[in-house]
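Translate sequence into structure tokens.
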Amino acid sequence: MKIALLLATAVLGVAAAQAASAATETSNISASAEVSTVCTMESTALAFGEVALTGATNGTATVDVTCTGGGAYTVGLGDGTHNVAAQRNLQSGSNILAYDLFKETGRTTRWGDAGAGLVSGVGTAVEQSLTVYGQVTTGQTLVAGNGTPYTDTVLVTLTY
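Result follows.
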């Protein structure tokens, strides 16, 4: 037993002597990353439903934008495929139905594709839902589509 104890003490002594004589060096690893403004976008359809014989018919759609935090963006809405002189129109066969798209619920500020017509925002790294307020204007001569719905396609442009 004494021999085992002496042997263990000798081994520990040699290990301690080696540890005491070992040299140490340190170094740093530099870490870096870049985050650019990146955005994604999705949009929903705008369905007006049955157009009222009198009075305006309203509808809404959404444009969902997700941008990296702090990233500035703008969203523009084109005039649609059936526009005449920048008037957006739904079309069924040769019949048209005028409508427009707005930035706010009061439907007074047109949402366009340039300058003051754009909607601006700053990314927060979470989805931001922008509401598009649509309105079929009153005072139009309504012609039944006879099974063919009135349609249009509006280009949505996200710039960042």
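Note: The CA atoms of residues 69 and 124 lie 4 Å apart.
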